[in-house]
Design brief:
The protein contains nine helices and 15 strands. With 285 residues, the chain is of the alpha/beta class. It has three domains: 91 residues, D-Maltodextrin-Binding Protein, domain 2 (3-Layer(aba) Sandwich), CATH 3.40.190.10; 77 residues, D-Maltodextrin-Binding Protein, domain 2 (3-Layer(aba) Sandwich), CATH 3.40.190; 83 residues, ACT domain (Alpha-Beta Plaits, 2-Layer Sandwich). The strands form three sheets. Strands 1, 2, 3, 4, 5 and 11 form a six-stranded mixed beta sheet that branches. Strands 8-7-9-6-10 form a five-stranded mixed beta sheet. A hairpin with a 7-residue loop joins strand 13 and strand 14. Helix 8 packs antiparallel against helix 9.
Length: 285
C-alpha cells in the first residue's frame, strides 16, 4: 500500500528569490513544508491569490520610515476575492551591493525597489551624491541586474540576494534610521475562523461622494468613536477620479464579523458609496 501524499501548500511573494518579501515569507512557521512561489510585482502577488495560483501570499503594506505601500492598498481595495488573514513585521536593513569590490565614489548608478531607495535616501546623498538613482520592480531584481552588468552600478538589497547572484556586499545597514521595519500582510481567498486567543485587527477601505462635504470624514470616523472602537491607523489614497477625492484606509482593533466593529461598519455604510472589509485577522505579536 502506497503512502498517502498530501498536497503542498503554495505561498506567494514578491520575487525573485532574495527579496525582503522572501525573508518575510520564510520567517513564517508554515513555510518549512510549503512551495514558495516568486511573483514579478505586488499586483501579480495579490492576483495569484485571487486567481487561485497560490494558497496564500505575503505582501508589504507599511514601512516605519516611508509609510504606506500605495500599490498594495490600491490593489487590495479593488480585488474583493482576496482577504487579509494575518500580519507580520520584520526589520529591514538593506545592503549596498555591487558586482565586485568598488570604491563608492566610482559608482555611477544605484538601482532598487522604490521603497529601499527612499528608506536609504540620506545614505545615498551622503555617500553616493553623484550616482543616478533608478527604481526597478524588486530588490532582488536590482541585485541580479547589478551582478550581470559590467558597468559600475550598485543595488540596495538583501545579503541573501548578494549570495544568490554572486555579488559583493559593499556596506551593510544602509537604512536612514535604525529599527527600520516593514509590516507585511498574509492574503488568502477565505479567512479561517479566529480562535480568540490573540488580539484581533480589522482593515477597511471606504469612499463615497460625500468626501468633499464639510464634516463627512468626521461623521465616518465617529461611527467607530461612538462605539469605543480604537483606530490604529488611517491613510488616504487618490480615488483616481477627480482631483481632491480619496479612498480612506482604516485599521482598528476588533473583529468586523461581530460586536462593536461590525456595528461601526454597518453605520459607516450609511455615509459611503463603498465600504470594503479587507480582513479581520490576528494582530502581530
Amino acid at each position: 500500500m502506497s503512502a498517502t501524499t498530501h498536497p503542498t501548500t503554495t505561498l506567494g511573494y514578491l520575487g525573485p528569490a532574495g527579496t525582503f518579501s522572501e525573508e518575510a515569507v520564510r520567517s513564517a512557521a508554515e513555510s518549512g513544508n510549503a512551495e514558495l512561489v516568486a511573483l514579478r510585482t505586488v499586483r501579480d502577488t495579490v492576483m495569484a491569490v485571487h486567481d487561485g495560483l497560490v494558497d496564500r501570499a505575503v505582501v508589504p503594506i507599511e514601512n516605519s520610515l516611508e509609510g504606506p505601500i500605495g500599490v498594495t492598498l490600491d490593489v487590495l481595495a479593488e480585488e474583493h476575492d482576496v482577504t487579509i488573514v494575518g500580519e507580520l513585521v520584520i526589520v529591514i536593513s538593506p545592503c549596498l551591493i555591487a558586482r565586485e569590490e568598488i570604491a563608492l565614489e566610482a559608482i555611477e548608478r544605484v538601482v532598487s525597489h522604490p521603497q529601499p531607495l527612499a528608506q536609504c535616501a540620506r545614505f545615498l546623498r551622503d555617500n553616493l551624491p553623484d550616482a543616478e538613482v533608478v527604481a526597478v520592480a524588486s530588490t532582488a531584481e536590482a541585485v541580479r541586474m547589478v551582478a550581470a552588468e559590467a558597468a559600475p552600478w550598485a543595488a540596495l538589497g538583501t545579503r541573501r540576494a548578494a549570495e544568490l547572484y554572486g555579488a559583493t556586499v559593499l556596506a551593510e545597514g544602509a537604512e536612514d534610521e535604525p529599527g527600520n521595519a516593514t509590516r507585511f500582510v498574509w492574503l488568502a481567498r477565505t479567512a479561517p475562523p479566529l480562535n480568540g486567543s490573540q488580539p484581533t485587527k480589522t482593515s477597511l477601505a471606504f469612499w463615497g461622494p460625500g468626501d468633499g462635504s464639510p464634516g463627512w470624514l468626521v461623521r465616518c470616523l465617529s461611527e467607530f468613536a461612538f462605539r469605543g472602537v480604537n483606530l490604529t491607523k488611517i491613510e488616504s489614497r487618490p480615488l483616481r477620479a477627480r482631483l481632491g477625492h480619496y479612498r480612506f484606509f482604516v485599521d482598528c482593533e476588533g473583529d468586523a464579523r461581530s460586536g462593536p466593529v461590525a456595528d461601526a461598519v454597518a453605520g459607516l455604510r450609511a455615509h459611503c458609496e463603498r465600504v470594503e472589509v479587507l480582513g479581520s485577522y490576528p494582530a502581530a505579536r
